[in-house]
């Protein structure tokens, strides 16, 4: 009888850090299992990824050899398949490799007629569970635990999108309109008050100027002084030089 594969404590998981396109409608990312198979793998061994629907993972049976690996196109009926065949040395601690794997990234698998395993897009949101399986020339040698269920995003049908705005959006629009009207009224009142103040100051300046002009105008209309009459016996020659004869003393 073949020896049962060793059970490794490693649990595959979606990267917890922020990652663009970490989970989409047909794909998801997995952390790369570095240093997991060291001590169990030979240079000729390969590591596979087993993908199964979450409710069918318990019924999955490891294939005895590579020829019995379930292909991607049997997923709708077999409820599981194996993909991402990779040399075990690529997952060693010293191997430089990308930090994540992308499940479902090969769109050419849908048109592939041969039985070769491929990494095709996942046909439904799932949920799915995955595990890594180390296989040698004599069959499975070690396997990880199953992951937690992985649910893909659901694509929204264009016919399901409501073109009319939601009620909450209408209420927000009404409140925004009211606030804008109040702001415009307040701005108008402030500008009116400032305008009245400026206009009043200009009017006061004009009144002060008119009063000054009127006072100045009166000073320029003082009637000229009349010439004094000459006394009897006085004669002016040349003009401006007048001589008067002495007057006799008045009788007592």
Walk me through the structure.
By secondary structure, the protein is α+β, with helices and mostly antiparallel strands. It has a domain at 6-155: Immunoglobulins (Immunoglobulin-like, Sandwich), CATH 2.60.40.10. It has 2 helices and 9 strands; from the N terminus they run βββαββββαββ. The longest helix is centred in the last third of the chain and has 53 residues, at 167-219. This is UPK3B protein.
Would you kindly provide a brief summary of this structure?
The protein contains two helices and nine strands, in the order E-E-E-H-E-E-E-E-H-E-E. The chain has helices at residues 75-78, 167-219, and strands at 6-7, 28-31, 46-53, 80-87, 100-103, 128-136, 139-143, 234-236, 242-244.
Please supply descriptive tags for the structure shown above.
single chain, 252 residues, alpha+beta, Immunoglobulin-like, 5-stranded mixed sheet, two-stranded antiparallel sheet, 2 helices, 23% helix, rod-shaped, transmembrane helix, Uroplakin-3, membrane
Mean pLDDT: 79
Record the strand order, biggest sheet.
Answer: 1-7-6-3-4
Largest sheet report: 5 strands, mixed
Strand content: 15-25%
Globally, the shape reads rod-shaped
Query: Can you write the helix and strand succession as a string?
Result: EEEHEEEEHEE
**CATH H-level homologous superfamily name of the domain at 6-155:** Immunoglobulins
State the assembly state of the protein chains: single chain
Quantity of strands, as a count = 9
CATH architecture of the domain at 6-155: Sandwich
* CATH top-level class of the domain at 6-155: Mainly Beta
Keywords: Membrane, Transmembrane, Transmembrane helix
Transmembrane segments: 171-194
Protein name: UPK3B protein
Organism: Bombycilla garrulus
């Amino acid at each position: 009888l073949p020896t049962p594969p060793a059970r490794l404590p490693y649990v595959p998981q979606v990267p917890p850090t922020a990652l663009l396109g970490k989970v989409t409608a047909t794909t998801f990312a997995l952390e790369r299992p570095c240093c997991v198979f060291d001590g169990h793998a030979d240079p000729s061994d390969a590591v596979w990824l087993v993908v199964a629907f979450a409710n069918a993972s318990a019924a999955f049976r490891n294939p005895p050899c590579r020829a019995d690996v379930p292909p991607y196109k049997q997923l709708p009926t077999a409820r599981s398949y194996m993909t991402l065949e990779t040399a075990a040395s690529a997952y060693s601690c010293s191997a430089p490799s990308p930090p994540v794997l992308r499940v479902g990234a090969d769109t050419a698998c849908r048109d592939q007629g041969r039985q070769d395993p491929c990494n095709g897009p996942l046909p439904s949101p799932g949920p799915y569970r995955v595990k890594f399986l180390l296989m040698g020339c004599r069959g499975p040698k070690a396997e990880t635990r199953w992951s937690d269920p992985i649910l893909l995003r659901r694509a929204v049908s264009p016919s399901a999108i409501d073109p009319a705005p939601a009620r909450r959006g209408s209420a927000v629009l009404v409140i925004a309109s009211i606030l804008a009207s109040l702001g415009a009224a307040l701005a108008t009142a402030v500008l009116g008050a400032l305008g009245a103040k400026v206009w009043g100051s200009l009017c006061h300046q004009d009144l002060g100027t008119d009063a000054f002009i009127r006072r100045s105008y009166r000073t320029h209309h003082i009637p000229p002084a009349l010439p004094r009459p000459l006394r009897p016996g006085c004669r002016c020659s040349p003009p401006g030089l007048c001589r008067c004869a002495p007057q006799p003393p008045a009788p007592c």
